[in-house]
Write a structure and sequence with these properties.
The chain is an alpha/beta fold and 794 residues long. The chain is built from 28 helices and 26 strands. The two termini are 44 Å apart.
């Protein structure tokens, strides 16, 4: 028998790598290494993971510095058969050298020269390192040693492959003397961890701008306290007493790892700028987190800080690719030295995919216009105009719309998970307060048990809001569950178990939209968080997903119509015209303010408050991203399933033939699950709880007349009397009981030997006795397989 791939690796490839010195410390070989866990695919309320990316061998010049990959092929194949895979692996890891080998031949793909050639042996680690240095112009041996400075390993946490790439490229850029660099990584990709490892490596390497070997002084800069406090207290903890947060108007020149927000460094009419108390050349490196948020804007107030510390190397970090709304960032920092987009993070399985639910009220669909001479809550005449979604809660505050949305969202949570952490993005702080009240009233049964089930987190709450935020972020905390906000939670907040991101305001900026989406992209599989929902009441998500530059499409998009009370309305048939259902406005809820208040709040321009009105919620449509990442046109779940079944199986006979055999049936189930099709969900939608999954699929895809499992079982008994009669009475009774269990519970009852251990079948005796009734284990399996074949042919 010819050597397979595993034999080839063990007998030929590994010995050649060892002979070249790749297992001699500090060099390492990572063998059969999965670098990603595999994309998460939502299936109904469950999920599955696709296979992760695996590389046969990663060659590491140092533990933290991969330099080459090896793709192995079986000895009976050619080495050429592995070249394309080797190139792909090298591209994944951004390494310069790739090899394909069948144990007899070794093909080298040299990224530094573009050449591909046969070599007799694998090169030694130092030889590859010298070639790498020459290509990148690293002539100084001291700089070369600094590049290879090890990472800091915190407990058992290892850097993900893209984090390793980002750290090494950033360190190399700094050591090369580049004054600025930019890393663009999706929210949830671990930018704080990457920043820590960069700072740690540079500090451990003894780098600074002066080259005197002393520890560098580094400033970690952001625009919100939480963006600097959390990294300072968590990721950067190994820096110990070297850490210092600049605040309170005091300048401390005796530390090395500084943290600050722009606001603390800038001055105003009452105090001078604090940053001017530091010498211009004080910092060696400034790490600018969320750098798209204004620091690079040429005429911006915060740009003065970066200009003042002109000698420092500037490292920008952002989650948003280059666009019109952040062009200043890229003009200042330049093109990113590394990009890890949202789409890639989702495809790798490090970031959570999401399903988009588009919900439209009649006010948002058709606009709202006041009736003739209508006055608002404060007795002010409302200007006659047609108000649209961008005007709601800015120019006109429509209580009926807020109540309808709150009721609909409550219904959504009841149908999914009422304890799934949820962030509701509102227009402003006042709107967040109104939404909090409405959601609290619709969830009064849970608020009665926990008054902080629904909270508002905005700047007005100050320390109370910070306490709510800390608990919302805590994966162990069960309170609060729902947080309403306006701007405060849109960026930099790490809520790993967030399952619902709710948009009740228009988001025009793609940068802000991606930051908001990022609140849900963390994966916490141990906490049941593998994907999340976006519930969009303002149409922002639809517009952003239609943008050709958007890089992380939703797994599923639904669109619902709801009435003025927040109830979901069944969509009409496609040929019918949508009928508008006029209902009475919702009754006032407990705790509502009185309808008339004497003095309106100050606002410029003025906002009008409307407490009455009739609202409808206006079809359930689905966008599904296929396994190849192709975005499909909106279809219903049933239409999507039908299209997939027809594509995969062509005819109902092909489908039935595969379904009839237990082995191929499992493959059909897995193929459909990999495309997000869940049979429990289909039973609910089609209202066919008694049907076999085959009959549901055949009905949807091929217009077959559906029958129940019990009807199918009875057909077999009548049509295949001779088949059953050929068995002994006891064997016939066992098969009949298996058939009864199928009629009750479905095709999973054909699984052997599990079904034989359950009553009433277990009443026939021990497992050997049951097998004996058929004349042996093989005969039993053949009988059950034939039973299934005839069942699905009946």
């Amino acid at each position: 028998m010819p050597d397979n791939e595993a034999d080839t690796c063990r007998k030929y490839i590994v010995p050649k790598l060892q002979a070249a010195g790749w297992e001699d410390p500090p060099h390492e070989i990572s063998e059969q290494r999965y670098i990603t866990p595999g994309r998460i695919v939502p299936v109904g309320r469950k999920h599955l993971r696709k296979p992760g990316k695996r590389i046969d061998y990663i060659l590491r010049h140092r533990r933290d510095f991969p330099i080459a990959v090896v793709e192995a092929k079986a000895r009976y194949k050619t080495a050429e058969a592995g070249v394309q895979q080797a190139k792909e692996y090298a591209d994944w890891l951004k390494v310069s050298f790739a090899y394909a080998s069948n144990g007899r031949e070794i093909i080298e793909i040299d990224g530094t020269t573009g050449e591909e050639r046969l070599v007799s042996n694998f090169p030694a680690p130092d030889e590859l390192w010298e070639r790498y240095r020459k290509f990148h112009g690293i002539a100084d041996s001291a700089v070369a040693d600094q590049i290879l400075t090890p990472f800091h390993f915190l407990t058992a946490r290892e850097p993900r492959y893209y984090q390793e790439i980002a750290v090494n490229l950033a360190v190399q850029s700094v050591l090369a003397g580049n004054p600025r660099a930019l890393l663009t990584l999706a929210t949830g990709a671990g930018k704080s961890y990457i920043a820590f490892q960069i700072c740690w490596k540079l500090t451990a390497a003894g780098w600074n701008r002066r080259g005197d070997g002393k520890r560098p002084r580094i400033l970690y800069l952001a625009d919100r306290n939480i963006l600097v406090d959390k990294p300072k207290d968590d990721e950067f903890l190994p820096f110990g007493d070297a850490r210092w947060k600049i605040e309170g108007g005091k300048a401390n020149l005796a530390r090395e790892m500084y943290f600050a927000i722009y606001q603390a460094l800038c001055g105003d009419a009452t105090r001078p700028a604090l940053y001017e108390k530091y010498p211009r050349d004080f910092f060696d490196l400034i790490v600018v987190d969320e750098c798209h948020r204004g620091s690079a804007r040429a005429r911006g107030h915060w740009r003065a800080i970066l200009d003042y510390f002109q000698p420092a190397v500037k490292l920008g970090m952002t989650a948003t690719p280059k666009r019109e709304d952040n062009i200043d960032t890229y003009a200042y920092f330049g093109n990113p030295i590394y990009t890890y987009p949202l789409k890639q993070g989702i495809d790798d399985g490090f970031l959570a995919p999401y399903c988009l639910h588009r919900v439209v009220t009649s006010y948002d669909a058709a606009g709202w216009r006041p009736s003739k001479d209508e006055h608002d809550r404060y007795g002010r005449p409302i200007p006659d105009d047609e108000y649209q979604t961008p005007d709601f809660e800015r120019t006109v505050a429509l209580r009926a719309r807020t109540e309808a949305i709150a009721k609909h969202l409550t219904g959504f949570l009841k149908s999914t998970d009422r304890f799934g952490k949820t962030i509701v993005f509102c227009v402003d702080q006042e709107h967040a307060s109104e939404m909090r009240r409405a959601l609290g009233n619709f969830n009064s049964d849970l608020v009665k048990l926990d008054r902080n089930y629904v909270v508002r987190i905005t700047s007005e709450e100050d320390q109370i809001g910070k306490g709510h935020l800390d608990r919302l972020s805590d994966v162990e905390s069960t309170s609060p569950i729902i947080a309403t906000t306006s701007q405060m939670l849109s960026t930099g907040i790490d809520i790993q178990t967030c399952k619902n991101v709710v948009l009740v305001r228009v988001v025009n900026s793609m940068s802000e939209f991606k930051q908001i989406i990022g609140r849900g992209t963390r994966v916490r599989e141990d906490r049941g968080k593998t994907w999340f929902n976006i519930i969009d009441y303002a149409g922002s998500a639809n517009r952003k997903f239609a943008d050709p530059d958007f890089d992380g499409e939703p797994e599923l998009l639904t669109q619902e119509q709801m009435d003025d009370a927040g109830n979901v309305v069944e969509p009409p048939a496609p040929a019918e015209e949508t009928a508008r259902v006029q209902e009475e406005p919702p009754a006032p809820l407990p705790g509502e303010p009185p309808a008339t208040i004497i003095e309106p709040p100050d606002a410029e321009p003025p906002k009008f408050y409307v407490d009455d009105g009739e609202v409808e919620i206006v079809a359930h449509v689905v966008h599904q991203i296929d396994s190849d990442g192709t975005r499909l046109a909106p279809v219903s779940i049933t239409d999507y399933t039908a299209e997939k079944v027809r594509t995969l199986y062509l005819t109902d006979k092909n489908l039935a033939a595969l379904w009839a055999q237990s082995g191929t049936r499992e493959q059909v189930i897995n193929d459909l699950a990999g495309r997000g099709i869940d049979f429990d969900q289909l039973r609910d939608i089609t209202k066919m709880p008694e049907a076999d999954p085959l009959d549901i699929l055949a009905h949807l895809a091929f217009k077959a007349v559906p029958i129940s499992r019990r009807q199918r079982a009875e057909r077999l008994r009548k049509a295949e009397f001779a088949f059953l009669e050929k068995f002994t009475p006891e064997a016939r009774a066992i098969l009949s009981e298996i058939l009864d269990k199928y009629a009750e519970h479905g095709p999973e009852q054909f699984k052997l030997p599990d079904v034989l251990t359950l009553p009433p079948i277990s009443g026939h005796g021990t497992l050997p006795a049951i097998i004996g009734a058929f004349g042996g284990a093989d005969e039993l399996r053949e009988a059950v397989e034939e039973l299934q074949s005839k069942l699905y042919a009946a």
